[in-house]
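How it folds:
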Amino acid sequence: MNMTGTVHGGTDEERGRGAARFQTCRRAERSEGPVNDFRAIVDSVRDRTDLAALIGRDVELQPAGSVLKGRSPFRADSDPSFVVWPHSQTWRDFSGGSSDGGDCVDYVMARDGVGFWDALHTLADEAGVALPGREDAQLSAELDRLSERRRVENLLTEAARYYHQVLPSKLRAAWFKDRYGFSDETVDKLQLGWADGHLYEHLVGALGASEDEALATGLFVRFRDGRVTDFFQQRLVFPYWRRGRVVYFIARQTELTPEAPWEEAKYKKLLTRSDKHPYVSALVQNDTFYNEDAATRAGVQRLLVTEGVTDCISALQAGVPCISPVTVRFRKKDLPKLIALTERVAEVVICNDSEASGAGEAGAFETAAALQEAGRVVRVARIPRPDGKDKVDLNELVAQGGPEALHKVLREAADWVEHQLERIPADAPKHEVSARLRELLPLLRTADPVLRDGYADLIKRRFKLRAQTVRELLREPPADRGARKNTGDDEDDGGAEPQGPGLKGEVLEDTDHYYILGRRGEPVTISTFALEPVRRIATDEGDIIDADVTTTCGRTYRGVRFPRDAWHSKRHLLRVLKSADMLWTGSDDNVQGVLKLLAEREVPALRGITNLGYVELGGEPLWVVPESVVGRGGATLPDDVLFVDAGDALHKRLRPLDPIDPAVEAATAALVLPKLLELNTPEVILPILGWFFSAPLKPRIHKALGHYPILCVWGTQGSGKSSLVMEVFWPLFGIRSAEPFSATETEFALLKLLSSTNSVPVFIDEYKPFDMPKHRRHTLHRYMRRLYTGEVESRGRADQTVVSYRLHAPLCLAGETRPIESALVE
């Protein structure tokens, strides 16, 4: 399971400390002073300390996947229970049921039995970072505050371990597994737990924490008579992890929760300091987003923001980095923090509950507006809600549909501007559409060109406007262009250099057609279609582009395949464009211009396999035919590999290989294989049987011997030589009943046929050398000689390029005679 974005101790903690340092420095810029400088120094010490090297002095660490493991230096440990996450620079000690952990400072504190200041001093000396003295009152107060935070967070982390340890198996199964769809791995990694009402006894009685220390966590309530009791009673508990430690809790009501006025809330959050609870530490604050470390990990391209804690966990389990305010919308005071956290994220996707009341959408609207204003790329995802159902949340989506259901929703997430466009009724009067669109023009005109094309297409389709109307709407007013052009501010225009001449044949694209600029700069349409590439497939004969074709009449043709030679000329392109909807009036140079546009698009890149039969990928042998794959690991190709039908005759004859029950397969083989030996005399059938059984492994045999024999079957007319191959041995390879290939095929047809496979037998019948035209006989014999050793045949093209064909098919030749040339007989 991919736990991308997981919050707990090293599985998805902050992986990019550079981001944390950046934010700290930004804070220091806004308010310079000793306190902020000291925080920056602490971050600098962390950044310069290699945790694995530090712990490696005391513990023999061994790689275990993406982590390092060793025996605990603090407790007797029969199995390696001490884990280091190098990517997040955190550690956890699971020995003896412990949950100790943290960063480099925590390790030195535990190793040396010292406080925060002494541990920091030790690491600073090694890292070459100068620490200020403790004489400064502000710094001393900040140090005391950090030490108090450590004490509180250590107790909160111990509380999470206790809650998880006492989680009843029935509740674990009924709630976390059956209701929420969480795996055991997720529950264990996030330390999800159960509040049994006895945490105070554990912290104070078993661990020896003082009453004041326990009360400072916000996990307990003290009554007027002095009694202390657990704040969470008979509830599911969700800890908030940050940098390997717990900083906050939220707890969910269950059927076992006591019936009392103070227990009516579905969710209860950890107590914070107030007039009623002055004993809670001021450092316990509801200012942490659930799993906020996911936003500061290095390399996060897409960050999901969702509504609830269970929604967020479901996203993490599905492999999606995610944070949550654990409410329908972020508080206004939390928005600056959200904006800072997302500063290095490529895009933010917001996915709230889908509900009839519209509360989730309204919350997403407010969050998206704030992020968009701050310059973030924002998209809004909508969860499908069945008719008659009032509400569907992300957790329910993943629990019922699996991770793919979430990924589908994310793929279909609308760009924020698109979301705004879709809020305009499609059937609104034209004057209203015009007014609403003009409100969005600043966003539309300043958008990325690729996104702007998508907006133009959406506007055209949704409001049934002409492409020319949309172009005029989005075109920047001449006054604005002139004002910018005449601005003498080099900073604003970036010192832009004059544009050089464009590519010969350069083409411009609209949503459903291509055009060029005429002599006076006017658009001249050259097609009635536009292409949207969906993937590129690299093959030995060049790149193939699969694209969706949208025509000016509104039709869309999905997955049209454009081979490399489709771009050689207008004539070659029109061979692919077979619909009457697809007209092209451009030149050959313009065809290359379209190719340039497609090549600039970012689309998935795949490797294409054109060879039929035996293929090795990553050392794994596979048998590949159209629509089917057979291999030891299963009947699938890797995600980045695709079989490409080369269009030759053999491809069309092979049928898909449907999975068969192994027991049925074994019983069939036991019946059929002995019968094969009865088809002819041993001296005839055994060589044929041996050759056909070895053909699937022909590449390996050829690699070992340097050659592979050609099977010649000859006999008098009516002896059954052709039917033996056509009706018995060929079908064993999945070849549909068909006529054999002719010995008098054209030269190019033979070349394509004999180079299309390296292990599926090719059967050529009616070999009659004395009745064949001389040039046909010589061609066939030349190919047979080259097949024996697997040579390459080259052919020139009209465009002066050369295409090479490897002749490596296992060849079976049948006729009333056999070849007598000495080179072939050998």
